Amino acid sequence: MLTKNMTDWIFRYQYVYRKRYTNKQKEKFLHAFVADLSQLTNQIKVVSSEEGVTNVYVGNIQKASRVICTGYDTPLDFKGDYLYFNQKRYAKKSLQYLYAKLAIIITLGGSVIFLGNKFIKVPSLVSIPSVVIAMITLVYFYYLGKIARGDSKKNTAVCNTFSIVYLLNRISKGIESNEAYAFLDATYLGDKGKQMLKNASKNSVEIVQLNGIGAFAPIHFVKMKYEGKQKWSNIIAAHLKENEGMPVYYLTSKELQTKMINSTQFEEVDNLLY
């Protein structure tokens, strides 16, 4: 059952700070997020790299024997199913969708501006037709620039908002001495946030990452290849199929876009972790 705090957090991070892709969006999120964390604990550390990647740690990361983490950044918009552990496919799909939108806006916008200049007779520089054409041109280039920079998915409840809320709820119950929490940046394209966490943790640490746990799909505990003595695992909500004898974990496009959160997954994740 969702508590009042959890309901408030879900609303805040699903609607008010739902997009966390650009630096400006992330700054706004982090300001609100750290404020929420400060009401639960004073064991907070915000760490930024030279590349501008920012992680938030709760508890003693250096000494913890287990770190539970999730990404807080949101993915670029794309079409199709989401395949876990396949960043190359995700990057390709995202770029294809971005280029398609750019092609459409350039074709339509360019045509409107061209036809407007050609067929609308402008008697002077300051007239209603000239002002309309100028405004259309400004709006066109504004959206063109916005699309060119990329945009994240609008509905991020499943992607990682629910994972963030789950960890906030765990932190509100108290932090065990051997456990810490991490909220990672840059998790969908590249692994800079993960690398920062690995470098900050001790060699024998167990790291468990949550992803997509709010989806209406079975929960899976997936062990990853270990690097050195550090153990990295994932708890995800996903459907499972096989491709050439290899397991493929995925969520459908419809499941990614939903605003509904499967709150019953809390107990499933608790059972795996505790």
General description of the model:
The chain is an alpha/beta fold and 274 residues long. The chain folds into two domains: 4-75 and 154-273, Aminopeptidase, CATH 3.40.630; 87-149. Helices cover 45% and strands 19% of the residues. The protein has eight helices and ten strands. It has helices at residues 4-16, 23-38, 87-119, 128-149, 157-172, 192-200, 253-257, 265-273; strands at residues 44-48, 54-58, 66-71, 82-83, 179-184, 206-211, 219-223, 231-237, 239-243, 246-251. Strands 1-2-5-3-6-8-7 form a seven-stranded mixed β-sheet, sandwiched between helices. The chain has a three-stranded antiparallel β-sheet with strand order 4-10-9. Strand 1 (44-48) and strand 2 (54-58) form a beta hairpin. The model has no long low-confidence stretch (mean pLDDT 84).
